[in-house]
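Is this the right way to post structure tokens for a design question? Let me know if I should format differently. Anyway, here goes:
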């Protein structure tokens, strides 16, 4: 096993830009749902690279696929046909309502592609000033366009002027969505997360997505789903919007698609595929290496029947969290789908998500905040029953300590 480089935090911060609020943890290696730090301490990983490591760490199938591809050829650019990319695209369109795929390298790039597609489609239909409606408390990325699409001013401060052509509506507010759509004659698209991740693990209601679908059908606008965090079985369905019973015109994927190898994808129906040669591109997008990783993930999902495990572990975790809600009195809500779950800490408890996240890290459990009071649980989809039970035990243990110290 290769050892991690010996590199001190002070040296790291001297040469790497401090754009992240990092926890004081340096990773050495991982196996399955576990990670070890450079001092030998073991952690149960319920962060999974922020909902990314679908198969956990050091999965043999993923490692073999990437290694084999690297020894064959790993990159030639999209000037040529890449068989692995075509095979992955076929598997993706067979899983959903889309017909075609554009590959890129990240969720932000996938959402950027969706925004460009929506604008190009609008222009092709005579809409020269297209507007895209997104939701308040959404998160779509950190490029200039996706940051503007993100309905959270804290991400936009200091980066103006923002990209024009975006309006915002309260999430799950059907009446507000209808009113804003009526007031937007040049509507090009409605872009929504099926479940808001960074916005606090808040699932959309079927009524909200149904209203968005109806508006798009009536106006000719496109319904776009941001599936960067909810896609590839994370929610208990292959795609998050499938929980809502609504077909979309465009949706995006990244994170879990490559199991941790960088890849992004924008999928669309044939009628809105208006991007032609020269209108959009990505040098690395869908290269053989990334596509091999995506294929390994897709094949593991099929062979391991991961959706069944997602459903079983989701039921176990939600039941356990609700027991903790009743016993501790500091959890105000438990919500989510599949293995993207969150529990909200009552403000009256005096406990914040970052505080609990830090305490759990010390105890050996890695988690991710999703707002000031919400802790997010997004383990690898291969998480076992015993590992889920251990996570619940540690959460209960640390909550009890924090309540006692308050």
């Amino acid at each position: 096993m290769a050892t991690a480089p010996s590199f001190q935090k002070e040296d790291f911060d001297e040469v790497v830009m401090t754009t992240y609020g990092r926890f004081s943890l340096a990773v050495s290696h991982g196996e399955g749902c576990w990670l070890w730090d450079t001092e030998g301490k073991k952690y149960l990983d319920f962060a999974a690279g922020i909902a990314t490591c679908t198969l956990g760490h050091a999965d043999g199938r993923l490692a073999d696929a990437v290694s084999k591809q690297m020894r064959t050829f790993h990159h030639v650019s999209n000037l040529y046909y890449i068989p692995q990319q075509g095979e992955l695209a076929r598997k993706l369109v067979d899983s959903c309502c889309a017909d075609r795929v554009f590959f890129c390298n990240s969720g932000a790039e996938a959402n950027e592609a969706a925004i460009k597609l929506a604008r190009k489609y609008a222009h092709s239909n005579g809409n020269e000033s297209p507007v895209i409606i997104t939701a308040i408390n959404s998160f779509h990325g950190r490029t200039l366009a996706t940051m503007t699409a993100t309905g959270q001013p804290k991400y936009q401060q200091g980066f103006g002027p923002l990209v024009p052509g975006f309006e915002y509506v309260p999430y799950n507010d059907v009446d507000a969505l209808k009113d804003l759509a009526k007031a937007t004659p040049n509507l090009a698209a409605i872009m929504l997360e099926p479940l808001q991740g960074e916005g606090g693990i808040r699932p959309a209601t079927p009524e909200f997505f149904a209203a968005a679908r109806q508006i798009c059908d009536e106006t000719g606008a496109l319904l776009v789903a941001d599936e960067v965090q909810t896609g590839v079985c994370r929610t208990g369905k292959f795609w998050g919007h499938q929980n809502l019973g609504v077909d979309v015109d465009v949706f995006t994927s990244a994170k879990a698609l490559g199991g941790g190898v960088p890849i992004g994808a924008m999928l669309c129906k044939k009628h809105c595929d208006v991007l032609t040669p020269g209108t959009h591109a990505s040098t690395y997008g869908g290269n053989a290496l990334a596509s091999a990783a995506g294929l390994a993930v897709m094949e593991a999902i099929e062979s391991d029947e991961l959706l069944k495990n997602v459903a079983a572990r989701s039921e176990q975790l939600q039941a356990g969290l609700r027991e903790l809600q009743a016993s501790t009195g500091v959890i105000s809500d438990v919500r989510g789908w599949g293995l993207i779950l969150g529990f909200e800490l009552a403000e009256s408890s005096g406990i914040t998500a970052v505080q609990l996240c830090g305490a759990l890290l010390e105890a050996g459990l890695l988690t991710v905040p999703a707002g000031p009071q919400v802790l997010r649980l997004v383990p690898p989809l291969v998480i076992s029953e015993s590992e889920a039970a251990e996570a619940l035990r540690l959460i209960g243990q640390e909550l009890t300590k924090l309540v006692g110290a308050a």
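Format looks fine. Someone answered above. Worth noting: The first strand starts at residue 27 and ends at 31. The chain is about 40% helix and 20% strand.
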